[in-house]
Input
Amino acid sequence: MNSVSLRFSGAIIVSILLALFLILLPWSDNLLRWRPEWVALTLIYWCLVLPDKISLLLAWFAGLFVDVIYGTILGQHALGMILVVFMSIRLLPRLSPGSLWHQYLLISLVLGTYFLINLWIMSATGSNPATWAYWLPLLSSLIIWPVYRWVLHLFHIERSRFGEF
Output
C-alpha cells in the first residue's frame, strides 16, 4: 500500500491557483469553445488522491473565483464545484481510483452533472447556449485528463507504507 503526502503544505491551493491561471490564458475564439474545465478537473484529482483534504468550502471558494473570472451569476459555478466535490467523494468508494477507465467514468458523470447544472442556471437566466458546442469542454477535459493528471501528480509524493526496498 502507498500513502500520499503533499510536497508542501499549500500544494492543493497552488494547484487550484494554477487551474485559475489556465482559465485566464488567452484563447482564440475557436479554441475557447474547447477550453477544459481546469478547476473542476483539479478538484476531481484531489478527491481521488486525498479525499480527506478537500472540503466543500474550498470548492465553493474556487467556484466563486470561476464566477468572477467568467462574469457569470455569483454562485453558479460555486454550486457546480460543490457538486463536483460531493459526487467525486461519494462515487470514489464504488470505483477503483487507480484505473484510468474508472477515472474517465467518474469525470464523465461528475462533469456531465456540472454542465447540466450550469445549463439549467443559464436557461433560467435567459442566456441559454443554442448549440451543441456547449458540451465541447467536457470532451476536451476527457482528452486532456491523462496529461493534467501527470502534472498534478508533481504536487504530491507517494510513499510505501512498508519502507523502501
In short: Helices lie at 11-24, 29-32, 38-49, 56-70, 76-91, 100-125, 136-153. Residues 2-160 form one domain.
